[in-house]
């Protein structure tokens, strides 16, 4: 299987209100169903980025200066069924990496896991230097997510994203999530998911969450309101 990242502008932000509940998780392109995970994926590393040894395993590093808010690359997710698989990633530059999809997926709910070979190699930080936004067309979410710098990034810096913006509630068996070992002075202490953050952090971070986290947040809120109405 050959996999390529596609270039594109940073998409507009998604609504941060209950309006988000009317958006659909339907991919607008041909692959709308999850597929079996391929054993091997060939892909091109975007220009200006490299795979290097990181504090834990490997990570994605930049070789160039990236100004704040600048577009970096687009992840093109493959929806897969089975998360308990090893995948061999082979880059155009000769890197061969074996990754375990049980720790390198994005849980999209309904038994579907999203895998992008490049984005899968980006490590977590509670104070990340990059973020990603789901691209939507009309009211439908696509399989693409654009990565951009949330602050100036210097050459040779590791690219990090905040997994708490992409995971609503991590399954208890997901390892290692507790305690978080990102080492940032702004560390939240745990990677158990957006749901478990303090209320003030939720308010501050909600505009940067991925669509499925935002939907889960407002669904949870609605459930609490329904419960209260039932009690009255
Ligand atoms: Zn942390």
TrEMBL record:
PROSITE patterns attached to this UniProt entry? SET (PS50280)
Question: Could you tell me which Gene3D superfamilies the record lists for this protein?
Answer: SET domain
What SMART domains does the database record attribute to this sequence? Answer: SET
InterPro entries registered for this protein in UniProt: SET_dom (IPR001214), SET_dom_sf (IPR046341)
Pfam families given in the database record: SET
Give start and end of each SET domain. Answer: 47-164
Protein name as catalogued = SET domain-containing protein
Native source species? Rotaria socialis
